[in-house]
Amino acid sequence: MELSIKEKLESLVELQVVDSYLNKIIQLRGNLPFEVQDLEDVILSLDLKIQEIQSKIDGNKKNISSLKISVKEQEDLLKKYDEQQMQVKNNREFEAITKEIEIANLEIQAFKRKITIAEKQNGEFKELLEVYQEKKQSKEKDLEIKQNELKEIIARTEKEEKELNSVKEKIAIKVDKRLLNSYERIKRNMRNGLAVVSTEREACGGCFAVVPPQRINEVKQLKKIIVCENCGRILVDQEMIDKAKEKLAIQDITEQLYA
Ligand SMILES: [Zn+2]
C-alpha cells in the first residue's frame, strides 16, 4: 500500500525529533571528555614544574650542608692556628700563621656568602612551589568535579540513548526508503544535524532563508515533498513537528542536566 505524502512526512518528522534529542545528548557529553583531558594535561605539566622546583630546592639544600661543613673545617683550622700562634718562637712563624688565619677567614666569608645566596634562592623557590601546588590543588578539584559530571551524564544518558535508538529503529522501518536515504544524506551535510525543519515565521527553520508564501502553501497542502530552495532541507509545518513531539513524548533529559 502506497503511503500518502502526509504519512511519509509524519514518520520522517518523528525520526528527526528522535535524532535531534540524540544529538543533544551526544553534544552535551561531547565537551566534557575534552575538558577532563585538558585538566589532566594541565595537572601533569604543573606536576613536572613542581618536581623541577623541588629538585632545585633539594640541590641547594645539599649544597648548603656541604658549604656548612667547609665552614666548620675552616673554623677548626682557625682554632688550631690560634693555639699555634700562642706557641710561636719568632716573628716569621707568627706572620706565616697570621697569613693562614687571613686566608681561612676569607674562605669562611666566601662559603657563607654562597650559603646566603642558596638560602635566599630556596626561599624564592619555596614561594613558587606554593603557588604551583595551590594551582594544582584547585585544578585537581576542577578535575574531580568534571569527572563526576561526565560519569553522571554518561550514566544518566546511556539508558536514554539506548531507548532513543530503539525508538528510532522502529520509526525508521516505517519511513519510505527513498525518503530515508535523502534524509540521511541531507542530515550528514548539515552542521546542526537537521534535515527536516519547519516553515515557522515564513522562513526555513534550518538556514532562515525566506520561504515564499506560495511554497508555504504547498508545504501545508501536503501534495508533494517541498525542500528549501536555499539549503535543500525538507520543509514541514510546525504543527506536524509539535504533533510528533507530543506523540513521542520524549522527556528532554538534557535540560535537567544543564540545570
Ligand atoms: Zn533552508
Write a structural description.
With 259 residues, this protein is mainly alpha-helical. It has one domain: Helix Hairpins (Orthogonal Bundle), CATH 1.10.287. Helix content is 79%, strand content 3%. The chain has a 3-stranded mixed beta sheet, sandwiched between helices. Helix 1 crosses helix 5 (238-248). The longest helix is centred in the middle third of the chain and has 84 residues, at 91-174. The chain is rod-shaped, with a radius of gyration of 40 Å. Bound molecules: zinc ion. Zinc ion is lined by residues 204, 206-207, 209, 228, 230-231, 233.
Give structural attributes:
binds zinc ion; Helix Hairpins; three-stranded mixed sheet; 259 residues; mainly alpha
Anisotropy-based shape: rod-shaped
For the record, give the distance between the C-alpha atoms at the N and C termini, rounded to a whole number: 47 Å
Q: What ligand species are in this complex?
A: zinc ion
Structure annotation, total helices: 6
CATH class: Mainly Alpha
For the biggest β-sheet, the strand order reads 1-3-2
CATH third-tier fold name: Helix Hairpins
Mean pLDDT: 92
Give me the secondary-structure category: mainly alpha
| Helical content (DSSP H or I, runs of 4+) | over 70%
Secondary-structure element order, N to C:
HHHEHEEHH
Share of residues in strands: under 5%
Count of structural domains: 1
> In this structure, how is the largest beta sheet organized?
3 strands, mixed
Low-pLDDT segments, ≥5 res: none
- CATH level-two architecture: Orthogonal Bundle
Over all CA atoms, what is the radius of gyration?
40 Å
Number of strands: 3
The oligomerization state is single chain
